[in-house]
Design goal:
Layout lengths: L1 H26 L5 H21 L1 H26 L4 H32 L1 H23 L3 H28 L1 H20 L1 H11 L5 H40 L4 H11 L5 H17 L2 H27 L7 H15 L1 H20 L4 H7 L4 H22 L1 H9 L1
Helix pairs in contact: 3-4, 3-7, 3-14, 4-7, 5-6, 5-11, 8-9, 9-10, 9-12, 9-14, 10-11, 11-12, 13-14, 14-15
């Protein structure tokens, strides 16, 4: 009787072991490479399509996410003094609005003057182009007719683009106001419901991934707050430097051009060239070619100071993304969302890099995005060199003995 019961339990255990093995094999089943590649490409295409179609709601949400992270210390400071969370979030957003209004009032006078003088700037630019054309014809004996079509098309195309941009901006002023209102509303609600959002993310994933998820949320908050806050401080310092140099040089629209160059400077690599071209073009139409050259040299020197001194000290090395990925991200952001995409590219890449660092099988992508993996690359190369040396020693052991005897 006991032996039969023992055999029954043994058979039962074997059955359960087989079931566990089958379940494990089903959960660890891997698709072929072609199928995985197809699903990956389809997922990327679907995400890009959704990002493009839903840009009207995704872009304000992303800007609100960055603004709420930047305003979170203010809200927490107010909550320490027994302010309700809703009131603390509202006061934080209100403080942000006050700062933006002060900046707009500072630039408003020169912006109105610039828009009023725009037709005269166009005429002066065409006169400058004609003078340059005559000088090239005299010095280099290049026919004016050969230069005329290209130069006029380039100048008029640039001015036409700027004119259409300004007209579209003021014609779509209502859309711009609606965009700003929704960004501020989203920022308020993200600050107010931040614990609810974190709880949702925690409940969305399995319990064994909870610690990793909370680590990703904490690192994302710290890095984005450090990056955005440092970037704002850097922009203010660069704007003050640009405006001071332009005022010393006697450049017209000094405040407008200085602040505009500082804003474009946020866009890595591409922004400084855009700001330099626009500033030199505007100065060329309002002053002399020497003044335009002085503006270009001044912006270049301030950019060198910013890249080598201000950026490492103020922004720091919190977001370590290599230059190639940065340029590709900015270009793709421009293709997908235009100018807002260029501003949002770096924070999005930083968040992707944090997620890749936290998930084991995605660590190679984090190495590809970052530039701080010098030690990892060095150790990997040392391991490869050791393996090659071992193989060479295994292939020719006699040569190693002769070398030691010598």
């Amino acid at each position: 009787m006991k032996s039969s019961i023992r055999q029954f339990y043994i058979q039962k255990q074997l059955i359960f072991n087989k079931f566990d093995l089958k379940e494990k094999s089903m959960t660890e089943f891997k698709l072929p490479f072609n199928a995985r590649l197809t699903f990956t490409l389809l997922s990327l295409i679907l995400m890009v399509y959704i990002a493009h179609v839903g840009r009207e709601i995704i872009i304000p949400l992303l800007f609100a996410f960055l603004i709420s992270i930047m305003l979170l210390p203010v809200s927490l400071f107010l909550e320490k003094y027994k302010f309700p969370r809703g009131l603390a979030a509202a006061l934080s957003v209100l403080l942000f609005i006050v700062v933006i209004v002060l900046i707009m009032l500072l630039m408003g006078t020169q912006m109105q003057s610039f828009i009023a003088d725009f037709p005269q700037l166009e005429k002066k630019l065409m006169f400058t182009v004609n003078s340059l054309q005559a000088w090239i014809d005299e010095k280099f004996h290049i026919s004016s007719n050969a230069q005329l079509s290209y130069l006029q098309k380039a100048a008029l195309g640039t001015l036409g683009t700027a004119t259409s941009f300004i007209s579209q901006t003021f014609l779509s002023l209502s859309s711009l106001i609606i965009f700003i209102v929704f960004v501020l509303l989203y920022s308020f609600f993200i600050l107010f419901y931040r614990k609810l959002l974190v709880t949702f993310l925690v409940r969305l994933f399995h319990e064994k991934h909870r610690e990793t998820l909370l680590g990703v949320v904490a690192r994302t908050r710290f890095i984005i707050k450090s990056y955005v806050g440092g970037l704002m401080i850097e922009m203010v310092v660069v704007a003050i430097l640009n405006t001071t140099v332009f005022l010393i040089l006697g450049i017209k629209y000094a405040i407008l051009l200085g602040v505009m160059a500082a804003i474009f400077n946020i866009i890595p690599y591409i922004g400084i060239f855009t700001a330099l071209i626009i500033s030199m073009l505007v100065t060329l139409t309002t002053g002399t070619p020497i003044s335009a050259l002085q503006v270009g040299i001044a912006l270049f020197l301030v950019h060198l100071l910013d890249s080598n001194v201000l950026l490492p000290r103020i922004v720091g090395s919190k977001v370590k993304i290599n230059a190639l990925v940065t340029i590709i991200g900015v270009v793709l952001g421009n293709m997908l969302w235009g100018i807002p995409g260029m501003f949002l590219a770096i924070p999005i890449i930083a968040i992707i890099k944090i997620v890749c660092e936290s998930v084991d099988y995605m660590n190679p992508w984090a190495i590809l995005l970052g530039d701080e993996q010098k030690e990892v690359v060095k150790k990997t190369s040392e391991i490869i060199d050791d393996k090659i040396q071992e193989k060479e020693n295994d292939q020719d052991p006699g040569q190693e003995t002769v070398t030691k005897n010598d």
